[in-house]
Amino acid sequence: MAYWGTGVIYSEYTHYFQKVKDARIASLVGFSNGDKEKLLYPDKDRAARLLFTAEQEHIYNYLDPLP
């Protein structure tokens, strides 16, 4: 019973984290298409500035094609 319960809990957490990851990717795709309102961060202007700065410093490139 414990083995089955562990499997159920693991699959639920995996599903939840996959949904969060998909939401983040969708927000970055929307942002790279010019819609900063798609960003998940509450302060959209600050989030946009952070992404621009990260891209300029070659830390993170949100314009990279998705895998």
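[next item in queue]
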Amino acid sequence: MAVADLAAPDQVAEPVERGRPPRQARRRRWAFLGVVPFFAYISIFLLIPTGELIVDAFKTANGRFTFANVEAIVHAPYVPAFEFSLEVSAICALMGGLLGFLVANAVLHDGMPRFLRGTFSSFSGMAANFAGVPLAFAYVATLGAEGIVTRLLAHLGFNLSYNFDGLIGLSLVYLYFQLPLMILLVIPSIDGLRREWREAAANLGAGSFRFWWHVGFPIVAPSVFGMMVLLFGNAFSAYATAETLGVTNLVTVWIAQLVNGNITVDPQVAYALAFGMIVIIVVTVTIYTLIQRRASRWLR
């Protein structure tokens, strides 16, 4: 009887407990309200404008459906602009990715002072956001025709010819914010390498080079390649720095010129150019997502 009496309250209470909604489920319902402002912000400032832009790319000024705008961007002068933008983005991705990985690996080396990591992280966070008009002014004041470094080298007998409009010149300017961005992104991936892997490689007689060649780089390679893809998209969509430096052969600059009327006013073609950029960015993000999925398997 005593056992039955003790079990009875539990048996009676159990259906009541099951009938009530779990407290955790109720919390999740209320927590969903917290992301409503985020989805509203994304919809108002990203999804709806992007949808309207894509629709306008296939319309005439009178609102009729047409493919003429999209057909126009596959001819000169827009094709060279796409080619130049892709070339600059590719150079920035390769150089920024490689140099950023080497610098981050050097900073995180066991023999380096610990304060260097905080210093590099702080500087990289600032430099990654230092772009646009301030960056263009800094480069003109430093390496322009009358820049400080240019005049100093001229006094020393060296003639520095630096063209910001060229492929290499603009790529070097973009590297100022691409390189620190890569450092910030790649540090967590290098930290994800377990110390046991290094110790095991050392116990087997492998030096630093052999460890990175056979263990380290194969593991972080998907993350590094994914971040290089991200750098590619970041450089491809940059505008203010190139516009301030007077570069005219970029897709983003052409869009601004067609909208503002610096050369001619043709917003429909500008919409088509923006649509072409969206296609390239979507492909870039898709490649980045696929690479990051592979990288996450190794760094769990």
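[queue empty]
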